[in-house]
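quick one, 392 residues, struct below
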Amino acid sequence: MRFIGHLHSRTAMLWMLLVALILSACGALVQGVPGGAPIQATPGDAPTQEASMFRANSARTGVFPSDGPTTLSESVWTFKTDVGNVGFVSSPAIADGVVYVGSEDGRLYALDARTGQEKWRFKTDGEVYSSPAVAGGMVYVGSLDNWLYALDARTGQEKWRFKTDGHVGSSPAVAGGMVYVGSLDNWLYALDARTGKEKWSFQTDGPVNSSPAVAGGVVYVGSDDGRLYALDAETGQEKWRFKTDGQVFSSPAVAGGMVYVGSGDGRLYALDAETGQEKWRFKTDGHVGSSPAVAGGVVYVGSWDNWLYALDARTGQEKWSFKTGSQVFSSPAVAGGMVYVGSWDGRLYALDARTGEEKWSFKTDGGVASSPAVAGGVVYFGSTDGYLYAVR
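---
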């Protein structure tokens, strides 16, 4: 399925969000699980203060430093746009008490994380499936109008924009003063975060829906050409590539010297981060567009076969699996000994990270492809019913 570019089918798009994007958007220690020892995040989990980009950090591990709710007590707030029947597929980013999220109405919204009150909005000329990244007082986001935008995080004022030749559904990663983002024009771009000046670009043989991960001076990104690429973050020089048998619109996660990435061939792959050598693969019965989370020696990933899987990060052995009512496009978030993930059945699920036991679920009136973000004990996520939710 060729995604965002032919995205005028909402289900189709619902990728895996990556862009899964999008998105997401996004810990050193995930707190203890009831009845067990605390889950320790690996050194590659790259903690951040809040949830400032897709998958919590530039390594895309999906590990959030905040505790997450183990019981559901309330919906803190909901936010709906005033532009008809449009949904939130973009994954929220949270920084300095503000939630940033893109919408199908073509806007990026900045909302008060505590109240949901709108602080500002910024209009693009295409749907915003890309998940924003916040760094250095700026917020970066792509649009299906082919542009990457850089805005003042406090005011929403545009600082610069960068034009590609394809839709930008990929979620930007910010690291080392650079912004990295993919485009459906087949290219990955590396830009100066302050000015938007192009530093380098790298061409793949297919659209880049995958959101790049950055760790250890290397950029990892998938392409619809079926490959995962490892590139020098400073120069763009290719270090290695790995071929799968399907489109790679899952965003890679880097942790513990390994890279984990899903493919449209139904598999999750574990590769040596330095060499690209395959360590193991795990087969599901559907596309793996969901981006994996890695914490405490466990990899969590969803599949279009309706299941969320927990696998041993070293061996790929299945530890547990949980069945939802529909495809899992959403990418799981790990926080406080819990795993949170959305499903196209309209629910957000909260599971015990160690056992897979369902602790609670929250029902929306649309599909949940947006990947949850956790900050301040609250889970933020969007739905195609047109609402952004904050629950705890």
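DSSP finds one helix and 35 strands in the chain.
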